[in-house]
Amino acid sequence: MLIKLHYRTVIMILNWFNVREAVEFGASLAESLAPDSSGATRRGGATKARPDVQKMLQQAASEAAPLKLNVLKRAKLLETFKSTLLAQGVAQGLAEELTHLLLLQLSGGRKTLARRSVMAPAPPAGGSSRRVATLLAEADARFAEGRYAEAAAKLGEVLDIAPRHAVAHANLGTTLCRLGRYREAEQALRRAIELKGTCPGAHLTLGKLLRDKGEFWAAETALRRAVKQDPRDPQALVELGFTLSMQARLGEARVCAEKALRLSPRDAGALGALGWLALLEGRFDEAEQRYRAALEADPKQATARAAFVFLRRMTAADQEWLDGVERALADGVSVFEEAKLRFAMGKYFDDVGRFSRAFNEYKRANELQQGLAARYDRIERTKFVDDMMRVYSQDQVDRAADGASVSDMPVLVVGMMRSGTSLVEQIIASHPDAAGAGELEFWGLTAHKHQQTLRIAPPDAAMTRKLADAYLKILRQHSSDALRVVDKAPFNSDHLGLIHTVFPKARILYLRRDPVDTCLSCYFQDFANMASFTMDLSDLAHYYREHHRLIHHWRSVLPKEVFLEVPYAELVADQEGWSRRIIEFIGLPWDEHCLEFHKTERAVITASHWQVRQKIYSSSVGRWKNYEKFIGPLLKLRDLSP
Question: What's the pLDDT score for residue 11?
Answer without folding.
Answer: 36
